[in-house]
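Budget justification aside, the reviewers requested a transparent look at the raw inputs and outputs of the sequence design task funded under Objective 1. We therefore reproduce one unedited record. The lines immediately below are the structure tokens for a 224-residue chain.
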């Protein structure tokens, strides 16, 4: 799963620590203008190569080690080497998914940015974020199937076929990984949609500012 993607200012700049305390309430600003190929790559790089791209696979690998499938071979569930294999598998999955999303969106002229809900109520915002993982926007602003998400999830699901353990490198498990990756896109949209609330919650919990800034620093919602 990637980090939340919301809360850049409408001008596209990343808020400073002082500015971040005045994040806008919902509805968040809508993205404006068309993206160049270079801008598209910068936005994808924030997600595929940012802090979250390192942290989340590490956490997922830890979870895999703590809760290994019953028939996982020993070299995938015991010791540092097993952790490295799991971490590498998770990292490859997310990276393949992200780069495939980027390439697909560029080819079919799909806007890779998240367009927040125009509502203020939580329930409409929730369903908007979930639906946007399946139907998003084209470069011209029209609704279109989220082809980047579908191809990205498929790439993430099946990239492990050559190296996953025997019994987990089949079509069934690839499909399961595809579904999990697609679910992370919906979760990513939700985190984006509710990023102001998440940031303020982190502040209220007195978490370090660096952690709180995760919710505002990797935002493909506006131009870089």
């Amino acid at each position: 799963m990637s980090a939340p993607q919301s809360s850049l200012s409408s001008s596209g700049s990343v808020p400073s620590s002082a500015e971040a305390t005045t994040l806008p309430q919902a509805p968040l600003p809508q993205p404006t203008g068309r993206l160049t190929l270079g801008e598209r790559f910068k936005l994808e790089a924030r997600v595929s190569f940012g802090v979250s791209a390192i942290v989340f696979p590490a956490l997922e690998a830890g979870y895999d080690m703590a809760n290994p499938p019953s028939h996982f071979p020993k070299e995938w569930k015991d010791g540092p080497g097993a952790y490295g294999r799991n971490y590498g598998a998770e990292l490859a999955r997310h990276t393949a998914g992200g780069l495939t999303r980027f390439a697909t969106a560029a080819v079919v002229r799909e806007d890779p940015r998240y367009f927040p809900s125009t509502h203020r109520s939580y329930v409409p915002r929730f369903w908007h974020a979930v639906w946007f993982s399946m139907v998003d926007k084209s470069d011209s602003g029209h609704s279109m199937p989220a082809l980047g998400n579908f191809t990205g999830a498929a790439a993430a699901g099946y990239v492990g076929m050559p190296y996953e353990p025997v019994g987990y490198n089949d079509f069934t498990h690839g499909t399961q990984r595809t579904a999990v990756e697609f679910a992370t896109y919906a979760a990513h949209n939700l985190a984006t949609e509710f990023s102001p609330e998440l940031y303020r919650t982190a502040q209220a919990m007195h978490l370090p500012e660096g952690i709180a800034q995760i919710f505002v620093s990797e935002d493909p919602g506006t131009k870089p």
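The CA atoms of residues 49 and 95 lie 8 Å apart. Residues 1-22, 217-224 have pLDDT under 50 and may be disordered. Computational costs for records of this kind are itemized in the attached budget.
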